[in-house]
Specification:
14 strands, eight-stranded mixed beta sheet, alpha/beta
Length: 304
């Protein structure tokens, strides 16, 4: 039986914009992504991009910019529209040339304006208990600095790796180190104060030719304005950038949903946040009434 969580509808006071960098073509996934970009691929029962959208909602961010690769904007618009059915306002920009994660902040600078910003990578999946509280805590650090996460993995070499001192304070972040000093990596969910735009503007391309988000995070760290929240093993995170991680993510989502609650369902979270009404949720359910997804939304409607 569905129960609306007690925290639903809590007033939002922070002004923050969201950016989802969904411009990855998914070359590591060829031939799967030859005719479709990675964020539109299915992960079990919903498109990959639904998961970062759900993270934005859980963090309480309604105004979101989705950055798409050239030639795919119409496909995203067809899938998501203007965001109103999620109680959101969604706009779109195209990243004409992939210059790295930090470049997303420059692509979206006019959208961000004078607000703080949350940047989420379009291939990131993150879920677990009390995630709402974790996201809101990281978000609160963006008032004056930056809030990111640290997540333990067996092999951290393909990621940005954060190192801690004996007191648990972050002391260094390295991008794809050959010899990592820690097993904690930085998932693609970042909260920044507005001056991140100026910081990103000064970032020079790395030897890989990319504007590294690790460079941005290290500047906040040097200024003693970076806050890192560790996520324990009760949380599940995937960087769904290759076939194995996509397959594993789909299995993890399927297993988690055996509890009866969906992972990454934007309509449900919008209703949780009181961003859409029961009638709006009912319309969403009716459009997909022959699917398990639609039946799930309909079950929520029936409880209210």
């Amino acid at each position: 039986m569905y129960r609306l969580p007690a925290a639903a509808g809590k007033a939002e006071t922070e002004i923050m914009k969201g950016i989802i960098l969904a411009a990855g073509r998914g070359t590591r996934l060829y031939p799967i992504t030859t005719s479709i970009c990675k964020p539109l691929l299915p992960v079990y029962d919903k498109p990959l991009v639904y998961y970062p959208i759900s993270l934005m909602e859980t963090a309480g961010i309604r105004d979101t910019l989705i950055i798409t690769p050239p030639g795919y904007k119409d496909a995203f618009v067809k899938l998501l529209g203007d965001g109103s059915r999620f109680g959101m306002h969604i706009e779109y920009r195209t990243q004409k040339v992939q210059k790295g994660i930090a470049d997303a902040l420059l692509v979206g600078q006019d959208f961000v304006g004078k607000d703080s910003v949350c940047l989420i990578l379009g291939d990131n999946i993150l879920f677990g208990p009390a995630l709402r509280r974790k996201l809101r805590k990281a978000k609160s650090h963006a008032k004056e600095g930056a809030g990111i996460f640290g997540y333990y993995v067996i092999d951290p070499r393909p990621f940005g790796v954060v190192d801690f001192d004996d007191d648990g304070r972050a002391v260094a972040i390295e991008e794809k180190p050959r010899r990592p000093r820690s097993h904690y990596v930085v998932p693609g969910v970042y909260f920044y104060s507005n001056d991140v735009i100026d910081i990103a503007r000064d970032v020079k391309p790395s030897p890989r030719g990319e504007m590294e988000i690790t460079t941005v995070n290290n500047i906040y760290l040097e200024q003693n304005r970076l806050h890192v929240t560790k996520l324990g093993n009760e949380y599940t995170w995937f960087d769904a950038g290759n076939a194995d991680s996509l397959f594993e993510a789909a299995g993890a989502v399927r297993a988690a949903q055996r509890s009866g609650r969906m992972v990454g369902c934007p309509e449900e979270i919008a209703f949780y946040n009181q961003w859409i009404t029961r009638e709006q949720l009912e319309k969403c359910a009716d459009r997909m009434k022959k699917t398990n997804y639609g039946k799930y939304l309909d079950a929520i409607v029936d409880e209210f």
